[in-house]
Write a structure and sequence with these properties.
alpha/beta; Rossmann fold; two-stranded parallel sheet; 18% strand; globular
């Protein structure tokens, strides 16, 4: 989703930066990018920043940053994460930051993704799905953000089936009704999905259009 937004912002001539502060994986993706997520984000935004700026923390174990760091007998350098983020924030008109897992994923024993969002002073877009169980997970995420006053731009529901059942079709409406957080977009299931397809779909959305207009008017 972040890749689609990055591509769309770039297409609208916004100087967009991207960041994947923390990433973990079973293997290093390429010579230029340790994380595949970072590689796709950089390609979508068409930027050539060094990987250690875009993704300052990477562990070659598919686990939470805390667990991966402890298995490897190391720690997460949060000061470096903040320093690289501030660099990107100054250099670009708008910087998209992609999380890792959910907001309660532990980075250290006392610091989660939620804490990182607050430290960076960022608003959040929550990406959910229409499948069974999404109401619980999405409301928990929304309530955690509200509790510490993290601004919520809205929710994007991804991979809505072509022929949804009644539960899938009603899930976005129930979450919006129960939380009073608006649904930004409902992305349909796409065959051979890529950031251009997602970005093009989001670009037709009136909420996203107004958001981009606000950026280009600055």
């Amino acid at each position: 989703m972040a890749c689609g937004l990055a591509w769309l912002l770039r297409k609208n001539k916004i100087k967009v930066g991207i960041m994947k502060p923390l990433a973990t994986s079973s293997k290093i993706y390429s010579r230029n990018h340790k994380s595949q997520d970072t590689a796709i984000l950089a390609k979508a935004a068409n930027i050539k920043e060094p990987d250690n700026i875009l993704n300052p923390v990477f562990f070659p174990i598919p686990a939470s940053p805390l667990m991966a760091a402890e298995i490897l007998n190391t720690t997460v350098d949060l000061k470096t994460v903040t320093k690289k983020f501030n660099f990107l924030k100054k250099k670009y008109d708008f910087t998209l930051v992609e999380g890792i897992g959910g907001i309660m994923v532990p980075i250290t024993t006392r610091f989660s993704v939620l804490d990182l969002i607050r430290k960076m002073n960022l608003p959040i877009i929550i990406v959910s799905s229409p499948k069974l169980g999404s109401i619980n997970h999405t409301i928990l995420t929304i309530n955690a953000c509200k509790k510490i006053k993290i601004p919520i731009i809205g929710v994007i529901f991804n991979q809505m089936p072509t022929h949804p059942n009644i539960v899938e079709s009603l899930t976005p409406k129930y979450i919006e009704r129960l939380t009073e957080v608006k649904t930004i977009s409902i992305i349909p299931f796409m065959d051979k999905c890529n950031f251009k397809k997602i970005g093009s779909y989001l670009g037709r959305n009136p909420i996203i259009k107004n958001f981009i207009l606000g950026l280009t008017d600055k």
